[in-house]
From TrEMBL:
<keyword id="KW-0175">Coiled coil</keyword>
<feature type="domain" description="PH">
    <location>
        <begin position="209"/>
        <end position="305"/>
    </location>
</feature>
<feature type="coiled-coil region">
    <location>
        <begin position="315"/>
        <end position="515"/>
    </location>
</feature>
<keyword id="KW-0472">Membrane</keyword>
<dbReference type="GO" id="GO:0003677">
    <property type="term" value="F:DNA binding"/>
</dbReference>
<keyword id="KW-0597">Phosphoprotein</keyword>
<comment type="subunit">
    <text>The SWAP complex consists of NPM1, NCL, PARP1 and SWAP70.</text>
</comment>
<keyword id="KW-0966">Cell projection</keyword>
<dbReference type="InterPro" id="IPR011992">
    <property type="entry name" value="EF-hand-dom_pair"/>
</dbReference>
<keyword id="KW-0539">Nucleus</keyword>
<dbReference type="InterPro" id="IPR057837">
    <property type="entry name" value="PH_SWAP70"/>
</dbReference>
<keyword id="KW-1003">Cell membrane</keyword>
<comment type="function">
    <text>Phosphatidylinositol 3,4,5-trisphosphate-dependent guanine nucleotide exchange factor (GEF) which, independently of RAS, transduces signals from tyrosine kinase receptors to RAC. It also mediates signaling of membrane ruffling. Regulates the actin cytoskeleton as an effector or adapter protein in response to agonist stimulated phosphatidylinositol (3,4)-bisphosphate production and cell protrusion.</text>
</comment>
<dbReference type="InterPro" id="IPR001849">
    <property type="entry name" value="PH_domain"/>
</dbReference>
<keyword id="KW-0238">DNA-binding</keyword>
<dbReference type="Pfam" id="PF00169">
    <property type="entry name" value="PH"/>
</dbReference>
<dbReference type="InterPro" id="IPR011993">
    <property type="entry name" value="PH-like_dom_sf"/>
</dbReference>
């Protein structure tokens, strides 16, 4: 998961590049566009109503950065997933801000290299706004860039540049940093392609977490053939592509805490073989030489060990250690300055104290001489004053003795009065107890009466409730009785109708039986007559009687039917009509 501090830095540049009104605030429409773009590149489902709901109290007015940060944290940064494309995210923020702050036409680096320098600045800058990069991080980046380009690091040149930085608060903004890289102050003698390759390699290491990359031979899992692949090692994975263009990714090996990497002896004419063992698969890889093999094994073991210890990527750990070192140095410098200030303040205080003590000693000496003179003068006055005080004390003592005698007699009278008042108080207490007992008895009697009244009211309510229930039961019984009588009458009417209908059906059945007998006799007579005619017609010749076609005969509950299907349908129709007429007459 990407740290929130690293995601906020590009967003801060994108936000500060938005147009401001005369009050220095950003309109809501611009924030909608920014939020939609952030959700798109970070693969977060965008809620178009959330921004309106968040700022519904300020529907028409502009919004400040303080008002947008809670929305950004709640609806975007809290939903960030690890699998989004961080390069596309940085690219979007870069496009929004760079044209308003810098022109790259006069620089030695292209726009894409400037974008990568911008990303590296955001990674190395301090977590304070506005964002700046300190001289220690500038030196770290330049050393890594020079080492990547295969050049030598010039300590004297950077020392001179560091003196120039001290006039600028010992730090640079991102646009100043891009100008320094584009002016070629530290890359003199290098062509643009070499500088671009160096920036790209540092970008891949710091921003894309690429710890190592190169061509290796990998053994296939199905065909068991050896194929050359371009491998890229990251803190938690090892990806391999068809070539270094990184277009066609053939697979990815996820490194976990239980993974391990081991060197294998040479076999089948293959040398420099090592194996990566994971939970579900094992990968055999061949390096170009022993040095490359050892470097890859060491790099992969370092990644696995970092995963087991729960550490960040190596360059993030290094950045954290550098920041901690700077913080300790700043703290030590602050403590040293504070101690110097305290020592200087203490020294000045001591000087002031010594001067004050000298002045006090001179004043004390003058005061002592003056006090001695005053003491001699006042000693005589005190003696006279003491004599007068003794005489006055004698007179006061006599007056006090007289007053004590008078107060003693008044005290005896006061004690007698107190005794009388105590006796009266006891009598009043007894009377008060009697009155309190009488009130308690009266209160108990009143409560008893109230309880009896409540019980009587409760019983009366119960009796009224019982009376009402009896009345409801009686009314319900009466209505049920009426319903039963009506139902009985309806059933009797239906029974009478059924009896009449049954009698009619019986009458019809008897008529049908009689008709069947008559027709049976008629058919028998007709058959006999027909036979006689045939015999007479053929002059006595006798022919065999063959069975003829006979239609299926209807069978009823009482045997073969005495009428045809057409007659049966006519009878059903007449019976239905008579039934409908009876219903109409009854209604």
């Amino acid at each position: 998961m990407w740290p929130r501090e690293e995601l906020l830095k590009p967003i801060w540049y994108a936000f500060t590049a938005l147009d401001l009104d005369h009050r220095g605030k950003v309109s809501k429409s611009q924030l909608k566009v920014l939020s939609h773009n952030l959700c798109t590149v970070m693969q977060i489902p965008h809620d178009p109503v959330a921004l309106e709901e968040h700022f519904k109290a300020d529907d028409q007015g502009p919004l400040s950065n303080d008002g947008y940060m809670p929305y950004l944290n709640k609806f975007i940064l809290d939903k960030v997933r690890e699998d989004f494309n961080v390069v596309e995210f940085n690219k979007m923020c870069w496009i929004l801000c760079y044209k308003k702050n810098i022109c790259t036409k006069g620089l030695l680096i292209k726009d894409d290299d400037a974008f990568k320098v911008w990303c590296i600045f955001n990674f190395l800058s301090e977590d304070k706004y506005p964002l700046v990069i300190v001289s220690e991080e500038i030196e770290y980046f330049l050393r890594k860039l020079v080492d990547t380009m295969g050049s030598e690091w010039s300590e004297d040149k950077f020392a001179d540049y560091k003196l120039q930085l001290q006039a600028k608060r010992n730090c640079l903004t991102v646009w100043e940093f891009i100008e320094v890289m584009g002016m070629g102050y530290f890359s003199k003698g290098m062509n643009r392609q070499t500088l671009s390759l160096g920036i790209n390699e540092v970008f891949q290491e710091l921003i894309l977490d690429v710890l190592k990359q190169g061509y290796l031979l990998k053994k296939g899992h199905k065909r068991k053939n050896w194929t050359e692949r371009w491998f890229i090692l990251k803190p938690n994975s090892l990806s391999y592509f068809v070539n270094e263009d990184l277009v066609d990714e053939k697979g990815k090996i996820y490194l976990e805490q239980n993974c391990c990497v081991e060197s294998l002896p040479d076999k089948d004419g293959k040398k420099c073989i090592f194996i990566i063992k994971c939970t579900d698969k094992t990968y055999e890889i061949i390096a170009s030489d022993k040095k490359t093999k050892q470097e890859w094994i060491q790099a992969i073991q370092t990644c696995i060990q970092s995963l087991r210890l729960g550490l960040l990527s190596p360059h993030r750990e290094a950045r954290l250690r550098r920041r901690e070192l700077r913080q300790r140095q700043h703290a030590e410098e602050d403590q040293l300055v504070e101690k110097m200030r305290q020592l200087q303040a203490a020294n000045e205080k001591k000087q002031r104290q010594l001067e004050a003590m000298r002045e006090k000693m001179e004043e004390a000496t003058a005061k002592a001489a003056l006090e001695e003179l005053r003491r001699k003068r006042t000693q005589v006055d005190l003696q006279d004053r003491y004599r007068l005080d003794l005489e006055r004390e004698k007179m006061v003592r006599q007056q006090m003795e007289e007053q004590v005698a008078q107060k003693s007699s008044e005290l005896e009278q006061y004690f007698q009065r107190v005794q009388e008042l105590e006796n009266m108080y006891h009598r009043l207490e007894e009377a008060l107890d009697d009155e309190r007992q009488a009130k308690q008895d009266e209160e108990a009697m009143r409560k008893l009466q109230a309880r009896l009244l409540e019980e009587e009211a409760t019983k009366r309510a119960e009796l009224e409730q019982i009376h009402l229930q009896q009345q409801r039961v009686l009314s319900q019984t009466e209505s049920e009785k009426q319903e039963l009588v009506a139902e009985q009458l309806a059933k009797e009417r239906e029974l009478q109708k059924a009896i009449l209908q049954l009698e009619k059906l019986e009458h019809e059945r008897q008529g049908a039986v009689e008709q069947y007998e008559v027709r049976k006799l008629e058919r028998a007579a007709n058959k006999t007559k027909t036979w006689k005619d045939k015999v007479a017609r053929h002059e006595g010749l006798v022919h065999l009687i063959h069975p003829g076609h006979k239609a299926p005969q209807r069978i009823t509950n009482w045997g073969p039917a005495s009428f045809t299907d057409i007659e049966l349908e006519m009878r059903k129709k007449s019976w239905q009509e008579s039934k409908n007429q009876r219903k109409e007459t009854e209604t």
